Amino acid sequence: MPQMIFVNLPVKNLDTTKSFFSKLGYSFNPQFSDDKTACLVISDTIFAMLLTEPRFKEFTKKEIADTSRTTEVLLALSADSREKVDEMADTALASGGSPANEPIDHGFMYGRSFQDPDGHTWEIVWMDPSAVEGQG
After folding, report:
1. How far apart are CA 39 and CA 47, in angstroms?
2. Where are the beta strands (DSSP E) in 2-128?
3. DSSP for residue 43
C-alpha cells in the first residue's frame, strides 16, 4: 500500500473553505468529515484535514499561526501541464483565493501560487518530465 499523507490545517469558516476547494474541483470524504472537520481529497494518497480552529487546537499545545502575518507551511501540488497550473491558479483567484507570490518560469518548471481563504499558501507546479528523467 502506498504511503499516504494527511495534512491538518486550521480554518476559520469550514463552509467557506469547503466551498472554495469544491470550486477547484476537489471532493470531500464524508466518512472523515463532520461539522468541525472536512477531509479534502486531493488524490488517492493526499488528503487535507480541514479543522475549525477550536478543533485544530485540540491537537496542539502551540498557538495557531496567524496566516495574515506568518507562513506556517507551503503546500505544493504538481500539475500535468503549464495550462493546468494556470487553470488551477486562475480558478483559485476567481473563487475567493488571493495572490501569494509571483509566478516562476524556468522553462522546464513553471509554477504559480495562491492563498486559500484561510491564508494557507498553495503552490501549483509543472515540471517537464524530460527534465527529471533519470533523476531519483
Report:
1. 7
2. 5-11, 27-28, 37-41, 46-52, 74-78, 98-99, 104-105, 109-115, 121-127
3. S
Amino acid occupying residue 114: F
Q: Tell me how far apart the alpha carbons of residues 21 and 87 are, in angstroms, rounded to a whole number.
A: 14
Dihedral sign for Cα 23, 50, 10, 12, please.
positive
Q: At 32, phi and psi to the nearest 5? A: -115, 30
- Secondary structure of residue 59 in the 3-state scheme: coil
Strands 27-28 and 5-11: unpaired
pLDDT tens track for 5-34: 999 999 999 999 999 999 999 999 999 999
pTM for this prediction: 0.89
CA dist., res. 38 & res. 79, Å (int)? 23
Q: Grid coordinates 518560469 are at which residue?
A: 105
Q: What contacts 24+ positions apart, CB below 8 Å, involve 22-26?
A: 23/91, 23/95, 23/96, 24/88, 24/91, 24/92, 24/95, 25/91
